[in-house]
Every structure is written in C-alpha cells, then in structure tokens.
Amino acid sequence: MKRFSLFIKRLSLSQQLFTLIFFFIIFFSAFFFVYLNQKVEIVIQTKTFADLKNTQTTIAEKLRTDENAYLYLDVGDYSMTNIIIIQGKAYYLGKGYEEIDISSPRYLDMYEKAMRANYVPQTYTFTGDKTYYSVVQVQEDAVLITFTRSEDLSTFKNDLVSSVIDLTVMVVGFFFIILMSWVATLLHPLNQIRKYIERMKFSTNLPDLKLNREDEIGELADALVSMHHELLKQEQTKEDMIHNISHDLKTPIATIKSYGESIKDGIYPYDTLEKSVDVIIENADRLEKKVYSLLYLNRVEYLVSQDTEGAQTPMKNVIEMVLLNVKVIHPDIEIITDLEDVFFDGLEEAWRVSVENIMDNALRYAKSRIEITLHDQELTIANDGPCIDEERLKVLFKPYEKGEGGKFGLGLSIVAKVVQANHYEVSGENTSDGVIFRIDKRK
User: Fold this and answer.
1) How far apart are CA 401 and CA 394, in angstroms?
2) Cα atoms found within 13 Å of the Cα of residue 92, Cβ hemisphere only
3) Which distant-in-sequence residues (6+ apart) come within 8 Å of 287 by Cβ?
4) Beta-sheet pairing, 334-339 with 369-375
5) Is the CB of residue 4 less than 8 Å from the CB of residue 19?
6) How far apart, in whole angstroms, are the C-alpha atoms of residue 312 and residue 433?
7) Is 53 helix (H, G, I), strand (E, B) or coil?
8) pLDDT tens string 16-56
9) Cβ atoms within 10 Å of 185's Cβ, excluding its own
10) Contact 393, 430 (CB under 8 A)
11) Are β-strands 129-139 and 142-149 bridged in parallel, bridged antiparallel, or unpaired?
12) What is residue 194's predicted lDDT score, i.e. its pLDDT?
C-alpha cells in the first residue's frame, strides 16, 4: 500500500486521473461481468421458479377436480410447456392434447429427479440445453411436468445486462467528460501559479497573478501574490535599514577618525584636549551600542535555534533582574508589578533579552508609569505612552521596522523570534491610556 501511495504521488494530476479511470474500468468490468451477471442469473432463476409454481398450481387444481381436463384444458401461458403423464402415456397440454413419446430420457429424468428431491422445482441440463422445471402429482396415477427452456431466459438476461452496461457506459462517459473538464480547470491555474513562482526567482517586477477564482486555488494565488509583495517590502526595508545602519556607523567612525588625526597634529577640534577626547569617547560608545545590537541579533538567532526541549525559565526572577537595572537608569518612571512564580518554556537568556527589549520600548515612550503582570503562562507589560498607529501595529514585530524614536527596528523582532521559537504568541495593542504588550501560550 505504501509503494502504491508513493507511485501515485509521483504522477501528475493528468496521470493520476487516467490511473483512476483505468482502475475504475477494471472494477466496472469485474462488477458487471462477474457480480452483476451472477445476480441477474439468480434473480431470473428465482422469478422463473415462482412463475413455474404459480402456473403449475393453477393447472394442477383444474386437473384434480376434473380427471379429463387435460383433453380440453387451455393452459394460457405458452412460454411454458406442460406435460401430463397418465398411466404410462404422456400428453402436451394446450388447446386439445397431443400424445408424446414417454420414453424420452428428458422427461423420465425430470420425473425421477423430482421424486428424489420431493418435487422441489429445479434445473435440468440435457445435451447442453438448460431447463427450469417443476413436477407435481395431480392424480393418483398422473403427474404434471411444467418446464421452460433457458434459451429465451438467456436472451432476456443478456438483453438486460447489455442495457444496464450501455446505460452505465453512457453515464460514466458523461461524467468522465465532466471530470476531464474539471481537471483542465485545475491544471491551467496551477500551471500559471508554477510559472509565476519560477519568474519570482529571477525578477522582482512582476504583474500580479489574477486567476478570478474564489476557491482554494484562488486563495493560494492571492497568498502567493501577498507573500511576493511582503518579500519585496521586507527586502526594500532591509536595504533601507542597511543603508541607515551604514550611515549610522559611518558618522561616529568619521568623527573618531577626524578627531584622532587632529589631536595627533596638535589641534584640538573642541576647544581643549579633554573635550575633544570626550567627543571621541562619546562616538565610540555610540558605535559600540550599534555594533552590539547587530551582534546580539545573531546571538538571538543562535539561541532560538538550540534544542530547548524541557528547558524552563522562572519568569519572575528574570523580570526582577531586569527591573534592578531599569529602576536605577529611569528613577522617574513608576513601575508597578503583579508577579506570580510562573515558568515559561525556553532558555533564560533568550527570555531575559525579550523582557529587556519590551521594557526598553516601554521606557522610551512611557510618560510616568509602567505596569507589569505575570500570571499563568501570560506576561503583560503596559505603559501610559502615546497610542500606536493601527497600521504600525500590524508590522510591529517584523524585522527592520523602525518606529518613531526607534533605533534599529530589531528589538521587537528579536522578541517575536524568541516567543515563536518557544511556542508562545506576542501582540501589541492600544488601551484607553497607552499601549500594552502581551505574551501568552499559543493555543
């Protein structure tokens, strides 16, 4: 079964369709020429025996009430043959009567077999000719044999089976045409999608893929177009970010270099040697922070790629450790906490970086207050700063998205990487008096 499944998966949709039709034809042939043929045979045999018995019962009742009825009895149904054997002589029943040769092995065998089977209706084959017959005793010295040959029944059966087969072939052919048309409507848009994806490898300036479909294929095409636009946007944002970072790095480097050369030549660009050196140190600090942020992004990429199965972090300890540094740097901001002893899945260092980045964002915009709550698998950090634009909220955690007053646009994207790697969700939303960030277990 596994090999068959692998075989099917290697086929194209057209090949799968023809394979399906091939197996259907095999099943169809087996069904009609084996199963249906046997069932029709059984139904015809059952119906024939019932008709034989009904016809024979009517004739037998007349013969029992009048022992000479066979001389003038009109049996009516000429599709069946009725023979009466009286005192060693046999007669056809019909309009009048006709004596026949009783020595015929056919009739003697029928009679003897019927007696052995207690007069149960059965079949008899004589020189390849199949006969359905029934024998009943009508008088003390007379028996009635009613039989019908299978030639007409075989013709009827063949006509019936042929009619069913012809009708089924027509219906299957009709549905086959519909199925082929339906598959064609699938293959064409799928080929368009494939060509669109192939062009995406070599070109960024592509016209939108429009299939005018509202089914799953249409949704797939829309998703591809949306993904392409998003990739282009991220690529452009990344290029802008690299340009901005290059500019940000270039400025302190140029300042440090020019001030150093000037001091070497005995010139103090900023009044005194001490002030000039302070400028160099200040720009070196700026350069260090920028480089540190870039290096830390790579560090986080490494952390989230590690196998953290079974690792857990005491989030209350992590938050309290971050707050120790924050309170000293921002004594003007009131920090309100409601913390429970809760463990989050993942490495402690990665979670500490995430909390630091959210807090850094909150401190940058908070007016006077930050509220932190930690309950069962949920962490929220709210501030009373200005609300965030709704469009900005949608891309808040994407990399290289630099917000108002932001630095590199990497802080919240780092949070998103850590959170997703540990199977949590992070979101930001506006409140009546500020902004709240929420991290909770993915449902």
Assistant:
1) 11
2) 10
3) 249, 252, 253, 256
4) parallel
5) no
6) 34
7) helix
8) 777 777 777 777 777 766 676 677 777 777 877 787 788 77
9) 13
10) yes
11) antiparallel
12) 83
